[in-house]
Amino acid sequence: MEFSLNSEQKLLEDNVRKFAQREVAPLAATIDREARFPVENFKKMGEMGLLGITVPQAWGGAGGTYLDMMIATEELAAACTSTAVAFAANATLFNDNVVHNGSETIKRKYLPGTSAGDLIGGIAMTEPDTGSDVVSMRTSARREGDYYVLNGTKILITNGPIGDVFIVYAKTDPLQGSNGISAFVVEATFPGFRRGKTFAKLGWRGSPTGELVFEDCLVPAENLLGSLNRGIVVLMSGLNSERVVMGALSVGLARGAYEAALRYAQERHQFGQPLVAFQLIQEKLVTIAMHLEMARLLVYKGAVLMDGGHRGRQANLVASYAKLFASEMCMAATTEAVQILGGYGFTQDYPVERMMRDAKIHTIGGGTSEIQKMIIMRALLEGPQLD
Ligand SMILES: Cc1cc2nc3c(=O)[nH]c(=O)nc-3n(C[C@H](O)[C@H](O)[C@H](O)COP(=O)(O)OP(=O)(O)OC[C@H]3O[C@@H](n4cnc5c(N)ncnc54)[C@H](O)[C@@H]3O)c2cc1C
C-alpha cells in the first residue's frame, strides 16, 4: 500500500493547482454573482487536456487514470466549484462513462469533441416525479426503423441549458423495471429535443442547471450506449464514479474554505491575539483538517478501485462512503469556515460565503445522504463482493 502520489501525479497536481490559483480563483466570485458558465476556464481545460483526462489518446484524450481525475478535481474545486463541476460533468459524467460503455462508433463520434472542450456534455436521469427512485423514470424510447423515439422530461440537469450532448436514460421495456432501461447519447440538435426552464439556485451558480424535453426525439439507433435494456449497468457504474468525483469536489471545496479560514485566523486579531491562538478556533481548524484527510483517503480509495476495473458492486460501498462522508464533511467545514471569519464570513467580501452555499448540493446531487446510507446498509448486509 502506497499513500504518496508518484512524480507524474505530483506534476499534474502542481500544474492544475497553478492554473486553478492563477486563472480560475480570480474569476470565482464573478462567475457566482453573474451565474454564468465559466466558458473561458472550460476552453482552457480542454487545451490543457483535462476534459479528456481519462479518455485514451486514440479518442483525443490524455489517457490518464481516475485517480488523476480526483487530483485535478480537488485543485479546481478549491478555487471555484462551478468550474470544477464544469470539468467533472464533462470529464466524468459524460466522457468517462462513454469510455467504459460506448461502442467504437460513439467514442469516435463524440470523445474528441468533448475532450477538446468543443462540445459540452452531461447526463440526464432525474425527472419531475422521479429523483432518488431513478428506476421508476417515465421517459420512454421505442424503436422505429433506424431510430429510437424518445418522449419525456428530465429536470435539474447539469449543463442542460448549454450542453451539446447528453447521456439520457429511458425506459425501453417499461414492464421490466430496472431491466427495461436503456442509455442513449442524445445531441441537442436532434429533432424533437428542446431545452425547458433554467433553474435559479442557492449555489453552484456558475454551473447551469436545466430541464430537457424530448418530444418524439429521433435518436439514431447507433447512439444506444451499452446494451438494449441493460442501461442500469451504465447508470449504476456511472453513479459510482459520480459519487467518487462528488467526494473529490467536496474535498476541494472544503480545502478552499479551510485555507481561507486558516489565513484569516492568522491575520485577524481580537483580545490582543490572532484568532488562531484561541483553542476553540484551533479545535475547529483541527477538525476540518483531520476530516479533510479522511475524506481524501476515501476518495482516493474509490478512484483506485475504479482504476482496478471495479465499477460495479464492490465499488458501491466505497463510493457511497466517499460521497457521504466527504459531502457532509464539506457542509460542516464550510459552515465552520464562515464561523471562523465571523461577520465578514457572512459577506461577499470573502469567499467562504459562496463556498458554504456551494456545499449544500454536495449532500443532495448524485444521490442524497439518505440514499447513500441505504446503499451502505444494503452492502453491509450483503457482505463484501468482488465484481
Ligand atoms: C444543482 C443540481 C445539479 C444536478 N445535476 C443533475 C444531473 O446532471 N443529472 C441528473 O440526472 N440529475 C441531476 N440533479 C438531480 C439530483 O441528482 C437529484 O436532485 C437527487 O438525486 C435527489 O432527487 P430529488 O431531488 O428528486 O429528491 P427526492 O428523491 O424527492 O428526495 C427528497 C428527500 O427525500 C429523501 N428520500 C427519498 N427517498 C428516501 C428513502 N427511501 N428513505 C429516506 N429518505 C428518502 C431524500 O434523501 C431527500 O432528502 C441535480 C440536482 C441539482 C440540485
UniProtKB/TrEMBL annotation:
Pathway: Amino-acid degradation; L-valine degradation. PROSITE patterns: ACYL_COA_DH_2 (PS00073). InterPro entries: Acyl-CoA_DH_CS (IPR006089), Acyl-CoA_Oxase/DH_mid-dom (IPR006091), Acyl-CoA_Oxase/DH_mid-dom_sf (IPR046373), AcylCo_DH-like_C (IPR036250), AcylCo_DH/oxidase_C (IPR009075), AcylCoA_DH/ox_N (IPR013786), AcylCoA_DH/ox_N_sf (IPR037069), AcylCoA_DH/oxidase_NM_dom_sf (IPR009100). It holds the Pfam family Acyl-CoA_dh_M. Residues 7-117 form the Acyl-CoA dehydrogenase/oxidase N-terminal domain. Residues 229-381 form the Acyl-CoA dehydrogenase/oxidase C-terminal domain. GO terms for biological process: L-leucine catabolic process. Its cofactor is FAD. GO terms for molecular function: acyl-CoA dehydrogenase activity; flavin adenine dinucleotide binding. Residues 123-217 form the Acyl-CoA oxidase/dehydrogenase middle domain. Keywords: Branched-chain amino acid catabolism, FAD, Flavoprotein, Oxidoreductase. Belongs to the acyl-CoA dehydrogenase family. This is Acyl-CoA dehydrogenase.
